[in-house]
Amino acid sequence: MNFFQEAKSLLKVNIRDYGMYIALFVIMLTFTILTDGLFMSSRNISNLLDATGYIAVLAVGMTLVIVIRHIDLSVGFAAGFMGAIAAIMLSQLGVPVYFTIPIILILGIVIGMFNGVLVASVGIPAFVSSLAAMLIFRGALLQVTEKTGTIIVKDDTFNALGNGYLPSLGQIAGLNVLALILGALVILYFVYAEISKRGQKIKYKFDVPSNKIFAVKLVFVSAIIAYVTWILAGYNGFSWTVVITLLVVAIYHFLTTKTVLGRHIYAVGSNPEAAHLSGINVKKITYIVFGSMGMLSALSGILYTARLQSATTTAGTLFELDAIAAAYVGGVSAAGGVGKVTGSIIGAVVMASLSSGMNLLGVGISYQYMIRGAVLALAVIFDVMTRRKRA
Q1: CB under 8 Å to 134, separation ≥6 — which residues?
Q2: CB-neighbour burial class of residue 123 (10 A; exposed 0-12, middle 13-18, buried 19+)
Q3: How confident is the model at residue 15 (pLDDT cuts 50, 70, 90)?
Q4: Which residues cross the membrane (predicted)?
Q5: Single pTM value for the model
Q6: C-alpha distances in angstroms, 185 versus 111, 179, 230, 244, 309?
């Protein structure tokens, strides 16, 4: 099999994984051409990634919830409510930021676990229980913000989470040195991880792509990382929002791919009955996944509040729909058992890129909603058709 035949075969077999990357590339190329390069400017890409952060964090948790065949509609207003509680603690109660953030994250876990108990132990469908929770948090958010309407946060350390950047070690040709160093480290880690994974597969006699295909993959992905790093280094470097989002993705990617817990989550999603018969505690997995979702909702609320430097009565509106859309566009299956947290991040960037590009082109908000809805529908149709072909 020659190089092109092998590449075509790999693309066909892994179209579910590669499709989202192709879609992102096409979207970015299209908007770059239509905006005369403005879309790919350092400032726009930096703002796009910062605006994606709080949705991307939610999308990671939502991916696992959908993987185990459930849904959580409460995450948006839960994030808004917990962001408001953080603002109250910082501005009105004078609680230091180093205590506020852990307390809010723990509160998120408790809230998420409560949802998990309703679903796993009481037997309430996740759609109904999370819908009830959404209404509760919507009311709670209005209650805590009704006196002032907006709670201003003046803590610079907290606000830096949504607006600050990693400190620069200097400039080289107008580029942020620390950003360049971090980008180089990411590339080195990626190459090392891929070579190690390939070595393990060869050791246990698994099929692996040819050396040429493997080399092309390393060069292509490394070039993308280098290009994004170069763009960000041309502005202010890596923001704290991007760093936090990448850390969340890295941790959850490790948990879902390298641990027993991760294997159990996908086993429950693939077939809950079979998982139970094989000795997996399905209720426990459900608790953990919903508790995780609650914690990530809290983190999303923190990032959003820090970005606005305030808590508002409308915080969290439609966050849950954006997170669900990002998860589906990123490749999670509506049937459960399939989906990657790395894919959900790409899905979040795809949706954010659509919004950013259409804003730059002056597309009306009504058309923006219709186009984003069409993209979501196409992602689900693609998922259904892919499963039919494999069946």
Answers
A1: 73, 74, 76, 77, 78, 320
A2: exposed
A3: low
A4: 20-39, 51-71, 77-110, 117-137, 172-192, 213-232, 238-255, 285-306, 369-386
A5: 0.92
A6: 37, 10, 14, 17, 32
